[in-house]
Write a structure and sequence with these properties.
0% strand, 274 residues, mainly alpha
Length: 274
């Protein structure tokens, strides 16, 4: 076992060092010459939260019977922002790093991983803000919160899988960037970010089952169930069985497999195609 760990460390040591440097450079470049610097990591989702809270909670009253709907809304924004940051940030990253790839030989997957880990750091900072809002609102925390790391792992895996697929497709099909941008605008309303999911299921159980099968919707609702209120509808309650969690899990697994195979197939030609 010790020898296996040693071989793994030796094999991926260079990749780990490169990944660390890329993540550091991403943060440095992103906030360079910015007065507030890293504070923008926290301020951006808070500004969006303030706008959506005012419009959809105070004016349109979309909170339904969900207690502490402000925290409910903030969790959705934080999770969605992470997914958007990883995927949109990865779409053109291979092309953007084309000059480096032609000069230096290194594993291509590290480039996409760097975007994902940089976004993960932002997510962890934002979750600290969520915890502060939870303390202020005195939300009910479910004992199932012990499974929260599994949901974060699922979110990371699904986002990274989509990022790998998009980055590889963009090298050959540049329209992917525009398609994904439009798709994200529509998907923002398709997942339960700014409304209680019960508003969907009360009108159509079928539509509710389709929407909750989306891993992003499933993750949001599960996190809200753990951190905000056990009244939150989850994939298990919508389908009437906890085994229904296998549906988004299978989607994540298939996305991961397809993206890994396609990225591995196309990566040897990235330097030429960009």
């Amino acid at each position: 076992m010790k020898q296996l760990i040693t071989r793994i460390r030796a094999r991926y040591r260079y990749s780990a060092i490169l990944l660390k440097q890329l993540v550091k450079s991403d943060f440095t470049i992103r906030y360079q010459n910015s007065v507030l610097g890293y504070l923008w990591t926290l301020l951006r989702p808070l500004f969006l939260f303030a706008i959506l809270y005012l419009v959809f909670v105070k004016v349109l009253k979309t909170g339904g019977d969900i207690p502490n709907f402000g925290v409910y809304l903030l969790i959705g924004i934080v999770i969605w922002n992470y997914f958007v940051e990883v995927t949109t940030g990865s779409v053109g990253i291979i092309v953007f790093k084309g000059d480096i790839m032609r000069k230096v030989n290194f594993p291509r997957y590290v480039i996409v991983l760097a975007v994902s880990f940089a976004a993960l750091i932002n997510l962890l900072f934002n979750l600290v803000v969520v915890v502060i809002f939870m303390a202020i609102a005195k939300t009910h925390i479910s004992p199932s919160v012990v499974f929260l790391p599994l949901l974060i792992a699922e979110l990371f895996t699904f986002s990274l899988s989509v990022a790998f697929l998009l980055s590889a497709l963009f090298v050959k099909y540049r329209d992917i960037g525009f398609i994904w941008e439009v798709g994200m605008q529509g998907a923002f309303f398709a997942v339960p970010i700014m409304y209680a999911f019960s508003l969907v299921t009360s009108r159509s159980q079928l539509v509710g089952k389709i929407l909750i099968s989306n891993p992003m919707a499933q993750i949001m609702q599960d996190v809200r169930y753990m951190l905000v209120s056990t009244k939150t509808e989850t994939v298990g309650s919508v389908f009437g069985s906890n085994l229904a969690w296998l549906i988004p899990a299978v989607i994540v697994g298939m996305t991961c497999l397809i993206s890994a195979l396609y990225f591995k197939k196309r990566s040897p030609f990235f330097a030429e195609d960009v």
